[in-house]
Design a protein that fits this description.
Blueprint (H helix, E strand, L loop, with lengths): L1 H26 L10 E2 L13 E4 L4 E10 L2 E7 L7 E3 L12 H5 L3 E4 L5 E2 L7 E6 L2 E6 L2 E2 L21 E3 L20
Parallel strand pairs: 2-6, 3-7
Antiparallel strand pairs: 1-2, 3-4, 5-11, 8-9, 9-10
Length: 189
């Protein structure tokens, strides 16, 4: 009888220990200090849906500068790390996206996952920051939230520029978006 009690007690202790290990593993987090990662999912079938571009790692590079022909002029623009053109949406405020729901599937926000501040591969005259909004940690440049356009299927394309008179290519010289003031315009271009 004593032997059976010890066996049952040992099994119970092992079960509790195993459960504790599983719970500890589920609650832990890891950090990586190796390389940065950018993920996106752009359909190759021509549909205009995409998932948000994300960047991980503390202080990782999320923005690059490229030169493209925009409206017939050679123009420096901001791109994600894959070379896809970044845009801003004029109805946004410095702290809130006006592009949600189906809009965000056509215009995936540039998201930042990690700690610290987002970085650019080359110096910028303005400031990159992170805004916590409905999308998560969305990257902003000079107060303008940044997005990609699902209709741009390759680096260097800017098919979204001017759509609806509200979507525009983000450039390094993009002015600071002022905080909204009662009775005044929050846009400073």
């Amino acid at each position: 009888m004593m032997r059976q009690f010890r066996s049952t007690t040992l099994r119970l202790c092992l079960l509790i220990l195993a459960a504790g290990i599983v719970l500890a593993a589920c609650g832990s987090s890891t950090s990586s200090t190796g390389t940065s990662s950018t993920t996106s999912n752009t359909s190759t079938s021509g549909s205009m849906t995409a998932t948000p571009t994300t960047a991980s790692m503390p202080g990782s590079v999320v923005v690059k500068v490229a030169t493209i022909s925009l409206n017939g002029l050679s123009t420096a623009i901001l791109t994600d790390t894959q070379g896809k053109t970044l845009y801003y949406f004029t109805p946004d405020t410095p702290t809130q996206s006006a592009c949600t729901g189906s809009c965000a599937s056509t215009w995936p926000p540039l998201l930042f996952q990690g700690s610290g501040s987002p970085q650019s591969a080359s110096p910028l005259p303005g400031k990159l920051s992170v805004v916590h909004d409905a999308h998560g940690q969305q990257v902003a440049y000079n107060g303008h939230l940044l997005y990609r356009y699902a209709g741009d299927t390759a680096p260097g394309q800017a098919h979204g520029n001017g759509i609806g008179g509200r979507w525009f290519v983000a450039t390094p010289s993009l002015s600071v978006l002022a905080t909204p003031t009662p009775g005044g315009s929050q846009y400073k271009y």
